[in-house]
Design a protein that fits this description.
Strand order of the largest sheet: 5-4-3-6-2-1-7-8
Number of domains: 3
Strand content: 15-25%
Radius of gyration: 34 Å
CATH topology of the largest domain: Ribosomal Protein S8, Chain: A, domain 1
Distance between the termini: 81 Å
Number of strands: 24
Structural class: alpha+beta
Largest sheet: 8 strands, mixed
Number of helices: 16
CATH class of the largest domain: Alpha Beta
CATH architecture of the largest domain: 2-Layer Sandwich
Length: 627
């Protein structure tokens, strides 16, 4: 029987390796920029076309390569960093695996121009699908210039499953942010379709953070620094009042390398415990310096996950140093005991003396409608000829107001029959009521200002008021998408959104869909956006916070299929603008909510899949009352 085990050809092995190393255009950018840093370049330019599908070009002014090194760099497992296994435990540079260029060349059309410092001529290489097409001398600047064209041209399935340009560009920008924050002493220039995305000069860490995330973050940054025998921690944390609802400004770096570490993230959140707004995440940019022999960076193909020798101890160091910074810079909410400008309240009288309440004289027979000084008084009109005395009746009713019940439930009662208050305590707008639509009137009890209860034939129906309102709003938004009839409410003073480049790409990709819902968003320079208008039904909400929530919901998902975008937008807006728990409702509002809910296509479940309606069977109620 013949042998059936054989070695894979290098081209096939490289394509298999590319499946782990090169996942998308952002992976190519990461590998090439890290190589440029290792080459000693202090000025790096990244030029991207069509979010990396057509072209990714990375140019540096580093030390360059000789003709032999240029050719060897595309061979698998070729590296200048490692000669023996022990070298893995003393690595301080970026790429060391020796698979990046080989993997890139196996799935793209790659051109390299490189010249060593002090040499008159450089080298030009053209490699297509791991096959060397041409190698010759070339007149080029010192350093290296990699041009990666038509990524995944020979792997149609991989190219087909790339997401939209905005999503792929967002990933590229995220990689640039990580590398630029880890190396603030280097200058970076990033262009997309010949338009500048970043122009970052060499600067310190704080200025680099501001350059990447906008001037608004500068006032939030608080320095952190501690040095122990295990680790040196430095960097900046954000003040609690500037915390956001979404991730995006949370970075860990170890020995100049970006890393993801959920365990250390929990240490940061533990330090902010009880001083953060609900569901908020603080910004942090923390840099660790440790002995390379105490960490293992070779546990993940992308080298973003790192194993520490003593993670528990470092966890406590992180939490302690952040708490110290919070206390040192007075980031905790504090009581101000300054007496300047305070009202001088006299001391109460001594023991045994009584305080008499002030007396107010009231003329209960006074009627302003019978006074000549009243602006509407006319001597030629008799009282009995104006509305048949309705003014006096109205006045009499006002005079008796307050002596009768005010419609409010007694304090401590958890049940209300529809509140008579005109506005909620927190100022949230009421439900939209269409007075022209005939509503079915149903008797409801409102439990804890959270659930609506009404008897039905089979028992007791319970409705979650917030989830019901979210379902109504969701279907309204989807109808607006289909009919293009959304009404926009103009902003007298348009709020300004200052975004980083990645979030700006998300918002640009969503602007057309947001416009269909009634948002009017105007882009300006430096990733600024003015919110000129919002949907009329959402005019009572904070427009800036609403748009930030929309952006946050798309940070970890592709902005691709239009139907998915519309559904996700409608879901986010519905959940953000639905009436909150704890809001008392008028009886007519409850009836409107009930009728609008049962006019929906799916009244039983909220747009996020939660249950809206539940019926407690009469038999279950009877069982509760049995001994």
């Amino acid at each position: 029987m013949s042998d059936f085990i054989h070695l894979l050809p290098d081209s096939v092995a490289n394509q298999i390796a590319a499946g782990e190393v090169i996942q998308r255009p952002a992976s190519v950018v990461k590998e090439l920029v890290e190589n440029a840093i290792d080459a000693g370049g202090d000025s790096i330019t990244v030029n991207v076309k069509d979010a990396g599908r057509t072209l990714i070009q990375v140019t540096d002014n580093g030390k360059g390569m000789s003709p032999t090194d240029a050719r060897m760099s595309f061979e698998r497992h070729a590296t200048s960093k490692i000669k023996e296994a022990n070298d893995l435990f003393s690595i301080r540079t970026m790429g060391f695996r020796g698979e990046a260029l080989a993997s890139i060349a196996s799935v793209a059309d790659v051109e390299l121009r490189t010249r060593q410092q002090g040499e008159e001529l450089g080298t030009y290489l053209h490699i297509l699908g791991s096959v060397l097409q041409k190698q010759q001398t070339d007149q080029c600047p010192e350093g290296s210039n990699f041009a990666v064209k038509n990524l995944f041209f020979n792997v149609p399935a991989r190219r087909k499953f790339l997401k939209s340009n905005s999503y792929e560009l967002k990933n590229i920008i995220t990689e640039i942010q990580r590398i630029a924050l880890a190396n603030p002493e280097l200058a970076f220039s990033v262009f997309h379709n010949q338009s500048p995305v970043y122009e970052l000069p060499a600067e310190n860490i704080r200025k680099r953070i501001v350059s990447l995330f906008g001037k608004a973050i500068n006032q939030s940054l608080t320095p952190v620094e501690v040095e122990t025998t295990l680790v040196k921690v430095s960097g900046f944390i954000g003040q609690p009042k500037f915390a956001k609802k979404s991730f995006g400004e949370q970075f860990f770096f170890v020995n100049g390398r970006f890393m993801k570490h959920p365990f250390f993230h929990r240490a940061v959140m533990h330090a902010y415990e009880r001083i953060l707004p609900p569901d908020s995440v603080p910004s942090y940019f923390l840099y660790f310096e440790v002995d390379p022999s105490t960490i293992d960076i070779n546990i993940h193909p992308t080298k973003t996950e790192i194993k520490f020798e003593d993670e528990q101890a470092i966890w406590h160091i992180i939490s302690a140093c952040i708490r110290e910074a919070i206390g040192r810079y007075n980031l905790m909410p504090a009581i101000d005991f300054d007496q300047d400008g305070s009202i001088d309240i006299p001391l109460p009288p001594g023991k045994g003396s009584s305080i008499a309440p002030p007396e107010i004289e009231i003329n209960r027979h006074y009627n302003p409608f019978q006074q000549e000084g009243y602006p509407g008084y006319r001597t030629d009109l008799r009282r009995d000829t104006v509305n048949n005395g309705q003014w006096e009746k109205l006045y009499s009713g006002m005079e008796r107001g307050g002596e009768e019940g005010d419609g409010k439930s007694e304090e401590g009662n958890d049940f209300t029959l529809g509140s008579q208050q005109g506005e909620s305590e927190n100022g949230q707008s009421r439900l939209q009521i269409d007075e022209d639509q005939p509503f079915q009137s149903v008797s409801f009890l409102q439990l804890k200002n959270r659930y609506l209860l009404t008897p039905v034939k089979s028992g007791l129906m319970v409705i979650d008021q917030r989830e019901a309102h979210a379902r109504i709003l969701f279907e309204n938004f989807m109808r607006n998408f289909n009919s293009h009839l959304a009404v926009s409410q103009r902003q007298l003073f348009p709020p300004v959104l200052q975004l980083n480049a990645a979030d700006a790409e998300i918002l640009n990709a969503l602007r057309d869909e947001l416009h269909q819902l009634g948002f009017e968003i105007r882009p300006e320079a430096n990733h600024q956006f003015y919110i000129d208008g919002t949907p009329g039904v959402l005019s009572h909400l904070d427009a800036k916070d609403l748009v930030e929530r929309v952006i946050a919901s798309f940070q970890d998902r592709p902005v691709d299929l239009m139907d998915e975008i519309k559904a996700q937008l409608a879901l986010v807006l519905a959940q953000s603008s639905a009436i909150n728990y704890g809001i008392p409702l008028k009886q007519e509002e409850i009836n409107a909510l009930f009728n609008q809910l049962f006019a929906c296509q799916s009244p039983a479940f909220s747009p996020s899949g939660k249950k809206i309606i539940s019926i407690i069977a009469l038999a279950d109620i009877e069982n509760l009352l049995k001994e």
